[in-house]
Amino acid sequence: QTETFLNGSPKKNLVILGTGWGSVSLLKNLDTSEYNVTVVSPRNYFLFTPLLPCIPVGTVNNKSIVEPIRAIMRRTKGVVNYLEAEATDIDPVDRKIQIKVMSGNEIRDISYDYLVLGIGAQSTTFNIPGVYENAFFMKEISDAERIRSKFVENIEKASLLERGDPERRRLLSFVVVGGGPTGVEFAAELRDYIDQDLKKWVPEISSEAQVSLIEALPNILNMFDKRLVDYTEQTVTKANIDLRLNHMVKEVNKDSISANVKGEKVEIPFGLLVWATGNAPMDLSVKLMNSLAAQTEKRGLLINEKLQLLGAEDSIFALGDCTFHKGLFPTAQVAHQEGEYLARMFKELSKIDQLKWELNEAVGNPKVIKKLNFKITRLNAQIKDFHYRHMGTLAYIGADKAVVDVQLRNKRYSLQGSPFAFWFWRSAYLSMCISIRTRILVTLDWIKIFFLGRDSSV
Ligand code: NAD
User: Fold this and answer.
1) Where are the domains of the chain?
2) How far apart are CA 249 and CA 260, in angstroms?
3) Which ligand 1 atom lies nearest to the CA of residue 250?
4) Gap from CA of 288 to ligand 1 centroid (Å)
5) Would you say the CB of residue 277 lies under 6 angstroms from ligand 1?
6) If 106 and its partner were Cys, which of 101, 221, 350, 390 is the partner (CB 3.0–4.6 Å)?
7) Is the beta carbon of 331 within 6 A of some atom in ligand 1?
8) Is the CB–ligand 1 distance for residue 53 below 6 Å?
9) What is the CATH number that goes with domain 5-123+280-346?
10) Complex-level ipTM
11) For the whole model, what pTM was predicted?
């Protein structure tokens, strides 16, 4: 049974949308006994996205990087409700959201006093024709599983064809578009799998399999230090990844992509195409942008320094990849820190709301009203702006090598290669895992592949 009063005043309804980095960081740090907390998300688990590119090739098992939302909820101080549903509309005036329940598609309205948007983003296609129809994305566990099935299917189909058959060559062409961390890490994982595991089981196929990484700009991993970018480009090329820089993909067909290279059209056939060209706002974010005049940015929701949504500052907050910050990348690190910040902010808001309630009860008592107003102003002034502390950026680049760009006391340090950078990368990811359970499972997966290799079945 939920306790709906806090020190005599009614608890506020706090609705959190999403179960990604921002929302879960908020939930873990929030004093949930101070609010009626409801989490709404179509996904009933948290996904440790940094290790998602490992899933299609089985370096890590999919169950090892997810944590059920109910396990996270149970570890909080108060009672939290979870609804497996997708928010389809928001009414900031009446403070209501419309949700579509995942099982049965029932539509319901729920009211909120405070709403937190942690709804993430979707893969962008820049409206390039043919992407949705022919490419795979790398956002969710289901995407990774689909990529794995297609990859294994292509290998089996290719092994039925004669050597030299152009169709066999096409089936074994694995193309990744987008040289950001997602594209680089996935191309690296794929190459590792082909060189370390497929080579043992089907050597003739592994020698023909080709991994291509296509990037529109002159460099990959553009958020990294230039030295690390150069090192990564040399390393992936040495590892036999066909790196194509300055290739702007313009069209995707059933079996090939068409890219513009310095004014020339280049056709690249593929058997599997993975599309990783960054983020676009979710449909719900677009609806909000269109309905609030203060939302003038198309790339994401605009918020102020206290993470309040412009146009609905008194009741809606937004964090993580659904927002647009100038100078901040949409990363797990940013969303995580924003979640921690909001948890502290809600602690203060709960005190302010109690005082406001006391203020209502104190009608006709000017002395008490004055005292309470003073306290409210002081508490409001104590809420500091959000400041992001950049700790660094890491990426796995294949063959047990990683690039690490860390920031310590305002100084930037770079590490590259192996074994130190690689072990630093692994330790950092392990420490970022959400629970001891996921840490143990990921470690066991790494030990397992060290001794037994990766699994090649679907
Ligand atoms: P990204 O935005 O970082 O990179 C996308 C790349 O695709 C860009 O280099 C862009 O030039 C290229 N591109 C765009 N259109 C193209 C086209 N038509 N043809 C060819 N290339 C094209 O995207 P991401 O890797 O999906 O990452 C999304 C966000 O998540 C980023 O902010 C990233 O920093 C973050 N992230 C970080 C890590 C990490 O730190 N290890 C891992 C994954 C994601």
Assistant:
1) 5-123+280-346, 131-277+391-452
2) 6
3) 18
4) 25
5) yes
6) 101
7) yes
8) no
9) 3.50.50.100
10) 0.97
11) 0.94
